[in-house]
Structures are given as structure tokens and as C-alpha cells.
Amino acid sequence: MIKPETFAFLADLAENNNRDWFQTNKQRFNDAQENMTAFAAELIKALANTDSYVDAAIEPKKTVMRIYRDVRFSKDKTPYKTNMAIGRLTRYNIPEIGYWLQIEPGQSFIAGGYWMPSNEHLKAIRQEIDYSGSKLIRIVDAPEFKELFGEFRDQEQLKTLPKGYEADHENIRLLKLKSFIAYRDLTNEELQAEDAVKKVASLCSKIQPLNVFLNQAIN
Which residues lie across from 184 on neighbouring strands? Predict the structure, then answer.
């Protein structure tokens, strides 16, 4: 589970996003980092039982994202992220495809799929939807998927038609998508529960078919 102390650290960091405060509270950060790494280790073990693209031998520490922001090209010069995240859990041919767990007080979530694909990958995904759209529809229109993640087509779409496709295409709303993400908010209470890893792993298992479709589309 994610400890209350981890949430408390992140809440305090959001109010004190500066290097002096961070150095004074470095042990709290280290404890939060250890909590995230332990959670990642359990999650990897759980996912590896059902997802062949998850390597059970991956080092959990490598899946926990850095808290330090790259401020070189940003107007916001605050040095630290106010969230902690676990990613890079899978070994798809396209590293952008996979799962992403973000922890932030009142704003935590689990997500999977592919956010903002490159033009080359977007073209390949659209081609797969054009040829085999029924496969994606079976995934995203499954009652359980819709109940957990909402209407897949409601993500950000192009304002114009994608090149090469007509407005009357049966899957035009899928073809106009800019991202292909399954997303679900998680409460602090859900993540602090004893079965938090089991719950997150279960949600990832429902996202897995989407990841497989996207990976196959690009390859």
C-alpha cells in the first residue's frame, strides 16, 4: 500500500517546493521513495503473472520516476514534481506503451495505452483501426472496460478529419483520437488499503488488451 506518510510528504512538498525545504525533509523523501519502490516490486510480481510483457526480473527501483523536474525550457522553475510515479513496467517494442501509476494527494490515477503517439505511430494505429477496427471496439466497448475507464472516444480528438479518411467512416471517432489511453482516478483511501496492489494490478489487466492492440498496430 501507499503509506499515509507518502501522501503527507507530497502535500507538504506542494506547499514548499524549494530546495531548502527539500533538503531539510530529505529523509521523508527517502522514506516515500522506499514506499514507492516496495509498491512497485509487489505490482511487478502481480502483473508478471498475467502479462507476458512484464519482466518479473526488472529492478523495481528503475520503474520509479525521478522527482526532480527538468526546468531548462520551462517558465515554471519549481525544482520538484508534486507527484511520484511508477512506469516502464513493460517491455513492448514501443516503450511509450504500458502502464503508468501516479501518486498525488487527491489526484492519483492509473493509466495505460499510448499518450500522444508520434506521427509515424499515429499513422500505423489509424491504419490498424481502418483495417481491424472491430478488434479495438471489442476492447473499448466491453461493458467492464467502459464501466472502469469511461467512453474511450471522449479523449481529445482532431478538429478536422485525419488525412486519408472520410467523415462517414464507421470508426471516424476512433480515427480522430490524438491519444489512446485508458485512465481511472484512484483515491487516497484506495491506495492506502491493504489490497491496493491487487486493485491496481486488476485495473492493469483490463488495460492489457489495449496495450497489445497498440503494440501490434505499430509492429
Answer: 110
| Sign of the CA dihedral running 94, 210, 183, 38 | negative
CA distance 13 to 26: 11
DSSP tag of 60: G
Q: Using a cut of 0.90, tell me whether the model's pTM lies above it.
A: yes
Residues facing 112 on adjacent strands: 99, 182
Structural domain that includes position 175: 4-218
Q: Taking the alpha carbons of 178, 47, 104, 30 in that order, is the dihedral positive or negative?
A: negative
Neighbour order of strands in the sheet with 180-186: 84-86, 98-103, 108-114, 180-186
Residues with pLDDT less than 70, the chain: none
Q: H or E element: which one contains 20?
A: helix 19-24
Task: Name the DSSP class of 158.
Answer: -
> If residue 185 lies in a helix (H) or strand (E), which one and from where to where?
strand 180-186
For the chain, how many structural domains are there in total? Answer: 1
